[in-house]
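B., you asked whether I could sanity-check this one before it goes into the benchmark set. Here's the sequence:
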Amino acid sequence: ESDQRSAAKVCILGATVAAELFGGEDPLGKIVRVNKIPMTVVGLLAAKGSSAAGSDQDDMVLVPVTTAMKRLFGARFPGKIQDMTIQAKSAAEIAAAESQITDLLTRRHRIRPGEENDFTVRNLSEIMEAAQEGARIMSLLLAAVASVSLLVGGIGIMNIMLVSVTERTREIGIRAAVGARGADILLQFLAEALLLSLAGGILGICTGAGGAVLISRIADWPAVIAPESVVLAFGFSAAIGVFFGFYPAWKASRLNPIEALRYE
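And here's what the prediction gave me:
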């Protein structure tokens, strides 16, 4: 409070700034220049990492608001600030704090009942909820696109297997004639459909992982390939192969051996 009243030339450094300026040394009590004005370092901020927008929250220097107004940047309207950030004691008290801030600013700005406020109070939890809702909608859209892709791929597998059954009708008849049961033929074509879909799944996983690594190297974005995602993709590929390959396999197992042997 005394620093604010006297517009003292003191500052608090973020972790990134402290590391860049002093390395491993203790910066407390050292002098740094902000806008060519010497400032004494009186504190360090705890590391916070990147914000939701991707900016480094540790790359900052904090000074008393009066010091910023009088010594560093000046103020268009002396004694007034454009915005402020306030932290509630706990998440449960955010709504109460927001209400109290609104009441306080209404009195300070002498806003009468019925008049429109000349300020805006924003709750970051609402912004976070909006961001989460947007992410959820995007996930649903991606899931819808993936579902369409799976459906198209499954239909393609079914068509290929139906063509295969038609072209190998005589082979099916010969197998049935030498003692193969319907279940044996069913398992044969079901296994072929499963292998076909798993091959496509492996190719898709390799393409996706390679694309993620390539983008991370080109755009310098972190790429995280979770083993659970790989297992899930592999499992879906197998399920699609079994589901869409069952009908062609069942159709092959139901062929009449005599008619199959006569097929040209």
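One thing to flag: Residues 159 and 173 are 21 Å apart (CA to CA). Otherwise nothing jumped out at me.
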